[in-house]
Amino acid sequence: MVGLWSRPSFRSSVASFRAGSEKTRPESTGWQSKDQPMKAKQFSFTTTLPMVKETDPTAGCRTPEEAHRLLADTAQLAQEAFTVLTLNRKYRVLDRHLISLGIADASLVHPREVFRAAISDGACAIVLSHNHPSGDTTPSAEDLRITRQLVEAGKILDIEVLDHVIIGRGERPFLSLRESGLVSFSG
């Protein structure tokens, strides 16, 4: 993907910290008298600041059709693959993450793994997707349950779940759970 980035380290240090000589502080052996000035202490820390993650300007994801275009390669897999597209505030794709690779008819998914990817990317929104190796895009009861659970988790984390797209093959190559109305994605 275009624009993947690394996180360079930035070092910061806080100069000497000097408390007023009239102040007292606890010591391991007791209290220092008010007459004795406090000695200056050095404090420093190292922090890693995230850099702006550049995105491919052509990789927007505002519709189920665009999500399908970005994830169509999963239609040919013999196993269920649960994938997440992480998006910035303008719904440009930050990254694509394979969350779980399951068996022929199931994939184990937990909100912890789904949102770990979104949080590490600094995503504002996500699109969920998984394939049905059979090619039939009809959602199972488990597909609907996990989607509802992930939408609720996204509300708590303030990461919008835009859609869950099921990838298949044939006359109907994908199904949007948002457009189908089977799951409510709004508050």
CATH architecture heading of the largest domain: 3-Layer(aba) Sandwich
CATH H-tier superfamily of the largest domain: Cytidine Deaminase, domain 2
Shape: elongated
Q: Radius of gyration, Cα only, in angstroms?
A: 25 Å
- Main sheet attributes: strand count, strand direction, barrel closure: 5 strands, mixed
- Mean pLDDT, to the nearest integer, reads 79
Q: How many domains?
A: 2
Counting DSSP H or I runs of 4 or more residues, the number of helices is 4
Order of helices and strands: EEEEHEEHEHEEH
How many runs of DSSP E, i.e. beta strands? Answer: 9
Stretches with pLDDT under 50, minimum 5 residues: 1-28
Helix content: 10-25%
| Class by alpha and beta content | alpha+beta
- By CATH, the topology of the largest domain is Cytidine Deaminase, domain 2
Q: Which range does the strand content fall in?
A: 25-35%
CATH C-level label of the largest domain: Alpha Beta
Amino- and carboxy-terminal Cα gap: 32 Å
Strand order of the largest sheet: 6-5-7-8-9
Give descriptors for this structure.
187 residues, two-stranded antiparallel ribbon, five-stranded mixed sheet, 21% helix, alpha+beta, Cytidine Deaminase, domain 2
Describe the structure.
- The chain has 187 residues and is an alpha+beta fold.
- Helices cover 21% and strands 29% of the residues.
- The protein is built from 4 helices and 9 strands.
- It has helices at 64-71, 111-121, 141-157, 177-180; strands spanning 9-17, 26-27, 30-31, 41-48, 81-87, 93-101, 125-131, 160-167, 174-176.
- The protein is elongated.
